[in-house]
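Table S2 (continued). Query chain:
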Amino acid sequence: MIRFENVAKSFRKSRVLDTINLEIGAAERVALIGSNGAGKTTLIRCLLGEYAFEGKVTINGHDPRQERTAVLGAIGFVPQLPPPLKMPVAQLIDFSAALCGTDPAKIHELARRLGLDLDPILARPFVKLSGGMKQKLLIAIALGREAKVLIMDEPAANLDPEARKIFFELLAERQDDSTMLISSHRLNEVSALVNRVIEMDLGKVVLDDRVADDVSLSGRFVCRIAIKRAEPAFAKAMQTWNFRALGDGLTWEGEVPGPDRLRFMGMTSRYVALISDYSLEEMKVGADEAPAQQGGRAKDALLAAADGATVN
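Corresponding output:
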């Protein structure tokens, strides 16, 4: 559904994306994570055809630079920063619905589910809305179209806790028939929704982990991590997860709940240069049975990230 081939982007002399190669299949639900400046938003803007870049990007076989109308008409997009539109809310809804053949009533209904009553603000310019109102309306517009691809850049950033909960419930309703790319700093929120995590750092993909099945999100994992040298920051992070140090303090062991597996891997991937060995094993149901090995990809992804490589 989505393909990046040798994609690179520079601003002046600064390399923001460095040879990105990714394929995202139909109905994959991807969490795109990474610190500020990692390249997440630039990658999304290249995907939407907003930037010129080196390499090639396609969405369902279409070039977003050359076929913008066809591409954007089939995408539900929520930007990180709302655009400064002066268009009245009612006109914006009608215009957006007309572009993709959606009934405006569907957008109204989704907005209400998110806690946004549109009736009092229909005549108000979009730019005059509060940050939370803008975000709810943009989400309602994106989900209101029958798009097979949903691209969202920090979509829950301005939402209150209740609206955030409903938003992810709405995404869950679409998880079987939509390809999703969700950029987020809150991996714990999307861990039960996504089936793949891609982490970026300094314009590179440093972690690409697929969740094999629902067992990974419902079970518990035994984890053992060996490090090359003592590091106070790493020790503090492991203690936060209730891990225990063995022997000389260079080996750590503990258990990770299934729903927190992706968030845990995202945290440990920040220490790839320090880690010498990494195993993550899913515990079987029977108390007398040995854990089922699930850690090969985790270890490979983390160690590959240390070398600047990508595990697909």
